[in-house]
Amino acid sequence: MEEKLKKLVEKIEKLKTKDINEAATKEYLIKPFFEILGWDFSNPDEVVPEDTDASGKRPDYSFYVKGKRKILIEAKSINNLLNDVKMLNEKMGYCLNAQVPFLIITNGILYNVYYSDLKGSSQDKLLFDIQLDEKIDEELLNKLKKESFEKDDLLKYAQNTFILSNIKKSFESLLQEPSKKFITLLNDKMKELIGYTFGDSDIKDALQNIYIQINQDSSSYQSNTVQMTSVDNDQNQWTINDQFNNGKWENALNLYRELTVLLKKEGMEFDEKPTKLYIGLLTKSNNKHFCQVHGQQGGLKIFININIKELTEQEKLNVRDVSKIGHWGTGETEAIINTINDLNWCVNIIKKSYNYK
Question: Is 158 contained in some domain?
Answer without folding.
Answer: no
